[in-house]
Amino acid sequence: GQQLNQSPQSMFIQEGEDVSMNCTSSSIFNTWLWYKQDPGEGPVLLIALYKAGELTSNGRLTAQFGITRKDSFLNISASIPSDVGIYFCAGHLRAGNNRKLIWGLGTSLAVNP
Amino acid sequence: SAVISQKPSRDICQRGTSLTIQCQVDSQVTMMFWYRQQPGQSLTLIATANQGSEATYESGFVIDKFPISRPNLTFSTLTVSNMSPEDSSIYLCSVAGPSGKGAGNEQFFGPGTRLTVL
Fold first, then answer.
1. What does the alpha-carbon distance between residue B48 and residue B35 come to, in Å, rounded to a whole number?
2. Across the beta sheet with B19-25, what order do the strands follow?
3. Among candidate residues B89, B90, B113, B108, the one with its CA nearest the CA of residue B98
4. Mean pLDDT by 10-residue block, N- to C-terminus, for chain A (113 residues)?
5. Residue predicted with more confidence, A88 or B101
6. What is the number of CB-based contacts under 8 A between chain A and chain B?
7. Where are the strands (E) in chain B, listed by range?
8. How far apart are CA B4 and CA B93, in angstroms?
9. Which phi and psi angles does A49 have, rounded to 5°?
10. Which residue from A73, A110, B69, B77 has the fewest beta carbons nearer than 10 Å?
11. pLDDT of amino acid B92
12. How do beta strands A19-24 and A5-7 pair?
């Protein structure tokens, strides 16, 4: 099935550093969602984006809906150890999505304290 | 967002047996979904659980293997039938609902059921 191209696949950073990850698609999306999944847990919604160009923050997290509607990025500023986990992008296609989400393959984040 | 619980949280099962996973939501929701997440992988949609009608299955998933019930707007079950080791995965239910804006396209997830088949 269709998937989003999410990069990087993994990151290992020092505490306090900023992090950036992104998702791209060849199709137009009308919703972009960013989730975080901790080990042994279900994904937790971090940020939801609905308009092209929209820039939304949630604490140290900032995400943007690309102007072309084919990409989105998530930034984490001043990373801390509890940011460790797997981050997934997901989105709804513009037409006939039936609320079915298309998922990226995830970015695994490790933070060295 | 809705509070979603799943039972069991984990199980170890023998090949050829079946396991039924329950998903309970603390509020009525229109859309409920079942996903599979194999170790180290992303989420794969199994089916949409429709209240009062048969579930809608994605390509590669069939009702005989993954029967789903949705008797009301707060509860659903997924059965993994005639299990094999390849069915070892995390099974997640999710619900679609608004987070205060947009068209209610966000999905919220339960904690998952970790299944190991020997």
1. 9
2. B4-7, B19-25, B75-80, B68-72
3. B108
4. 86 96 93 94 94 95 96 97 96 70 95 92
5. A88
6. 64
7. 4-7, 10-13, 19-25, 31-37, 44-49, 56-57, 68-72, 75-80, 89-96, 107-109, 113-117
8. 8
9. -125, 135
10. A110
11. 98
12. antiparallel
Structure tokens at B13: 């099962």
Specify whether the CB–CB gap between B106 and B98 falls below 8 A. Answer: yes
Q: What is the mean pLDDT of residues B48-62?
A: 92
Q: Which amino acid is at A63?
A: A
Residue B1, Cβ density class (10 Å: 0-12 exposed, 13-18 middle, ≥19 buried): middle
- CB contact (8 A) between residue B58 and residue A1: yes
Longest pairwise C-alpha distance within chain B: 45
The DSSP code sequence of chain A is ----EEE-SEEEEETT--EEEEEE-SS-EEEEEEEEE-TTS--EEEEEE-STT-EEEETTEEEEE-TTSSEEEEEE-S--GGG-EEEEEEEEESSS-TTPPEE---EEEEEE-
Give CA–CA dist B107/B52, Å, rounded.
Answer: 21
d(CA B22, CA B19): 10
State how far the alpha carbon of A66 is from the alpha carbons of A22, A28, A41, A69, A72, in Å: 10, 10, 29, 5, 5
- Residues of chain A with C-beta less than 8 angstroms from the C-beta of B41: 105
Reference B45, options B102, B89, B9; nearest CA is: B89
Query: Is A39 in the B-facing interface, judged by CB distances under 8 Å?
Result: no
CA distances from A79 to A12, A56, A61, B66 (A): 11, 18, 10, 40
